[in-house]
């Protein structure tokens, strides 16, 4: 069981500062990262992602807790002894060396024979498609190319684990999309465990095998992208990943994992309960905007609730509708995919009905 | 809007006007920089006057005297051993001073550059404190410490470690100590300016790529700090080579350096042409050192920042 884990983080705490200024950047975090996994740390700015990554790399040492690599606690080992490499957000390429020397640096430091270093550098240049720029200085290549060199440099020594701290955030949209695919390809080709940090939820969902969502130093949920999106166990996770409607209410009755929740704004909602949930009065029902649809009242459909259409936002691929519910306070958001040559069915000010898709609503702890 | 021709004429008129306006300043700078130098060059080719000054009589004696010495009775020329040894001592002492200030200055600069930003200014201020005092007074302070009845000998004798004072004053070691003390800030400041710009994420990247702390120093930090190290070396080496006050007080007239030798020619020696020729020789050595710098750093082309 432990064999299949590349890195295990056990109850790690990192406190910065002393006394009354003490501050836990990482707060009792525990994660098991599997071998050959594309694992993502996702969370808002300042939640401790970089700190956790630096603990794994060895640039910081935990206040308490263990970091296990191949069955060995490496929490106190200096970075140059860990078989882990990092792709820095700023790339941190050595400006006084050529592209090839940058890529070969790790292997040279490991004392590998010159010929082996040369061969490996050539192979890495090929892997990241940079053969032609081997002798350039790192200041003479573009941002995207620097990114590739940083990747090649970190991959060259064949680390057990590769850490990537928001490696794509400095690139423009198009290049970022290309590099996302490139990263997935490199991970598949090398079979190295990737631990990837991002605050871009879309990037996390499209690239990861599993995601850990962090907030204020704590790990809130570790799961596959689909599970994180479809079945968030925490209000913060539901809010941070994608867009969500939150409806507060009280649990009326429960049967077969489905609760009937009485809400002041949308009446009685049938919502799925999380497996280990103990129903106790006040709860929140969550529903994704694309899991509901709009009707005009004369469509005579079985509506969950009604409201006033306040806003229509066109997004190209889909259209967002903001509906003020009956209680006059709650704003409900819906998303519908656009079809070719579609006529606009609704206009602002319309009285509309909202229908929930079956099994779409879920109960969350408050 | 306007034709390119008209535009160009306007621009060239503009440039001419700018040159005309800055001409007085340029003339003053030119005169101030080259005038005294030309006088020194001229004097080196004249004969000495009986009470100092020069006689308007062309002569190569000044230049011959730099390395050769005319026997008073036989008029034959031989190598001027005293001058050559002073020249060698000056170059050696300046080189050793440079190396010692490097050895002390680099760790000091690194220490300051790695302090939190708020406290760095305080450390820099401490480094520059010696500059607030006159050079003469600083040199006398060193003298107070190392002379026979000075601080070090006094303490050692009190402790009973020695029975007779150690002769430290009036040795090359004394000159070296004084020069290292005086010139250390000139090394620390440029090296610090360079290290302060150093991206310490590069240091982390090197650690991450299996470089031991020693390798990080030799492969990353020193190569990136090289321009600062060389600038500091030049700032120390050049004034050390022409140093006058420090060797004259701590060397005690016996252990002369080039600066003292030159002063001697304009003072007691009453041989201004020789003094001028020696000054120009010193300048040539400095120029050679600077050319060496330009060759080794200027052409390297590793501009980053
Ligand atoms: N060396 C340090 N000393 C004191 N506090 C620190 C230190 N490093 C990080 N912190 C604090 O720890 C918290 C987490 O920082 P961290 O850099 O890990 O955030 P992050 O999740 O990577 O954010 P971002 O997405 O902005 O990069 C922040 O509040 C930060 O101010
Ligand atoms: Mg970060």
Walkthrough of the structure:
The complex is a heterodimer of chains A (about 375) and B (about 300). With about 375 residues, chain A is α+β, with helices and mostly antiparallel strands. Chain A contains 8 helices and 20 strands. In chain A, β1 (about 5-15) and β2 form a beta hairpin. The longest helix of chain A has 18 residues, at about 175-190. Chain A starts with a strand and ends with a strand. The mean pLDDT of chain A is about 90. Chain B has about 300 residues and is mainly alpha-helical. Chain B has 2 domains: about 5-80, no CATH class; about 80-305, Orthogonal Bundle (MetI-like fold), CATH 1.10.3720.10. Chain B has helices spanning about 5-45, 60-65, 80-115, 115-130, 135-145, 150-160, 170-195, 200-210, 215-240, 245-250, 260-265, 270-295, and strands spanning about 45-50, 55-60, 70, 75-80. Mean pLDDT of chain B is about 90; it is low at about 300-305. The chains are: A alpha+beta (about 375), B mainly alpha (about 300). The interface of A and B includes residues 81, 92 and 110 of A. Bound molecules: adenosine-5'-triphosphate and magnesium ion. Magnesium ion (MG) binds near residues 49, 50 and 165 of chain A. Chain A: It comes from Neorhizobium lilium. Chain A: InterPro entries: AAA+_ATPase (IPR003593), ABC_SmlMolc_Importer (IPR050093), ABC_transporter-like_ATP-bd (IPR003439), ABC_transporter-like_CS (IPR017871), Mo/tungstate-bd_C_term_dom (IPR008995), NA-bd_OB-fold (IPR012340), P-loop_NTPase (IPR027417), PotA-like (IPR005893). Chain A: The complex is composed of two ATP-binding proteins (PotA), two transmembrane proteins (PotB and PotC) and a solute-binding protein (PotD).
User: What is the domain tally of chain A?
Assistant: 2
- Cα gyration radius of chain A (Å): 25 Å
Instruction: Count the E strands of chain B.
Output: 4
Strand order across the biggest sheet of chain B? 1-2
Q: Can you give the mean pLDDT of chain B? A: 88
Unreliable segments of 5+ consecutive residues of chain B: 301-305
Fill in the CATH topology of the largest domain in chain B: MetI-like fold
CATH topology annotation of the largest domain in chain A: Rossmann fold
Number of helices of chain B: 12
> CATH superfamily name of the largest domain in chain A?
P-loop containing nucleotide triphosphate hydrolases
Q: In what order do the strands lie side by side in the largest sheet of chain A?
A: 6-7-8-3-9-10
CATH class of the largest domain in chain A: Alpha Beta
Query: Which overall shape of chain B is indicated by the principal axes computed on the Cα atoms?
Result: flat
Count all strands of chain A and give the number: 20
Run of helices and strands of chain B: HEEHEEHHHHHHHHHH
Q: What is the H/E string of chain A?
A: EEEHEEEHHHEHEHEEHHEEEEEEEEEE
Structural class of chain B: mainly alpha
Q: Label the structural class of chain A.
A: alpha+beta
Helix proportion range of chain A:
10-25%
């Amino acid at each position: 069981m432990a064999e299949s884990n590349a890195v295990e983080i056990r109850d790690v705490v990192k406190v910065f500062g002393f006394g009354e200024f003490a501050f836990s950047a990482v707060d009792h975090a525990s994660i098991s990262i599997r071998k050959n996994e594309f694992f993502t740390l996702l969370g808002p700015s300042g939640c401790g992602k970089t700190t956790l990554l630096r603990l794994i790399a060895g640039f910081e040492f935990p206040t308490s807790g263990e970091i296990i690599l191949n069955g060995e606690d490496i929490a106190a080992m200096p970075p140059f002894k860990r078989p882990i490499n990092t792709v820095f957000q700023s790339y941190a390429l050595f400006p006084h060396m050529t592209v090839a020397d940058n890529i070969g640096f790790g292997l040279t430091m490991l004392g590998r024979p010159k010929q082996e270093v040369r061969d490996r550098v050539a192979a890495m240049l090929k892997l990241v498609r940079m053969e032609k720029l081997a002798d350039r200085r790192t200041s003479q290549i573009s941002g995207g190319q620097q990114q590739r060199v940083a990747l090649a440099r970190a991959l060259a020594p064949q680390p057990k684990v590769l850490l990537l701290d928001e490696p794509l955030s400095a690139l423009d949209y198009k290049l970022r999309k290309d590099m996302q695919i490139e990263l997935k390809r490199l991970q598949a080709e090398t079979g190295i465990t990737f631990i990837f940090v991002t605050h871009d939820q879309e990037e996390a969902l499209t690239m990861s095998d599993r995601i850990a969502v962090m907030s204020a130093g704590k790990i809130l949920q570790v799961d596959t992208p689909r599970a994180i999106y479809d079945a968030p166990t925490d209000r913060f996770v539901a809010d941070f990943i994608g867009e969500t409607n939150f409806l507060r209410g009280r649990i009326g009755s429960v049967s077969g994992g489905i609760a009937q929740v009485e809400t002041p704004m949308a009446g009685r909602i049938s919502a799925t309960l999380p497996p280990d949930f103990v129903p106790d009065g006040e709860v929140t029902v969550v529903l994704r905007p694309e899991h509901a649809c709009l009707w005009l009242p004369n469509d005579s459909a079985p509506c969950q609730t009604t409201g006033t259409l306040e806003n229509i936002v066109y997004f190209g691929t889909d259209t967002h509708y903001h509906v003020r519910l009956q209680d006059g306070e709650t704003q409900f958001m819906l998303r519908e995919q656009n079809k070719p040559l579609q006529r606009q069915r609704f206009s602002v000010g319309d009285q509309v009905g909202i229908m929930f898709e079956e099994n779409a609503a879920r109960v969350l702890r408050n | 809007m306007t034709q390119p021709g008209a535009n160009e004429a306007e621009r060239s008129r503009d440039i001419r006007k700018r040159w005309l306006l800055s001409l007085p300043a340029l003339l003053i700078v030119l005169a101030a920089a080259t005038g005294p130098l030309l006088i020194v060059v001229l004097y080196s080719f004249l004969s000495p006057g009986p009470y100092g000054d020069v006689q308007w009589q062309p002569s190569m004696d000044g230049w011959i005297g730099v390395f050769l010495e005319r026997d008073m009775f036989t008029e034959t020329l031989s190598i001027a051993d005293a001058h050559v040894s002073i020249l060698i001592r000056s170059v050696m002492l300046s080189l050793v001073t440079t190396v010692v200030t490097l050895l002390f200055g680099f760790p000091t600069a690194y220490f300051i550059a790695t302090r939190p930003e708020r406290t760095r200014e305080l450390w820099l201020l401490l480094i520059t404190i010696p500059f607030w005092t006159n050079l003469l007074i600083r040199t006398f302070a060193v003298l107070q410490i190392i002379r026979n009845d000075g601080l070090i000998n006094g303490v050692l004798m009190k402790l009973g470690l020695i029975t007779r004072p150690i002769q430290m004053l009036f040795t090359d070691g004394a000159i070296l100590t004084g020069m290292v003390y005086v010139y250390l800030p000139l090394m620390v400041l440029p090296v610090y300016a360079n290290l302060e710009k150093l991206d310490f994420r590069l240091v982390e990247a090197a650690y991450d790529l299996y470089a031991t702390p020693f390798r990080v120093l030799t492969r990353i930090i020193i190569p990136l700090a090289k321009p600062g190290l060389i600038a500091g070396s030049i700032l120390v080496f050049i004034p050390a080579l022409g140093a006058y006050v420090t060797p004259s007080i701590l060397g005690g007239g016996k252990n002369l350096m080039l600066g003292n030798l030159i002063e001697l020619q304009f003072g007691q020696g009453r041989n201004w042409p020789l003094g001028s020729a020696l000054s120009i020789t010193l300048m040539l050595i400095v120029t050679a050192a600077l050319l060496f710098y330009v060759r080794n750093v200027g052409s390297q082309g590793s501009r980053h920042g």
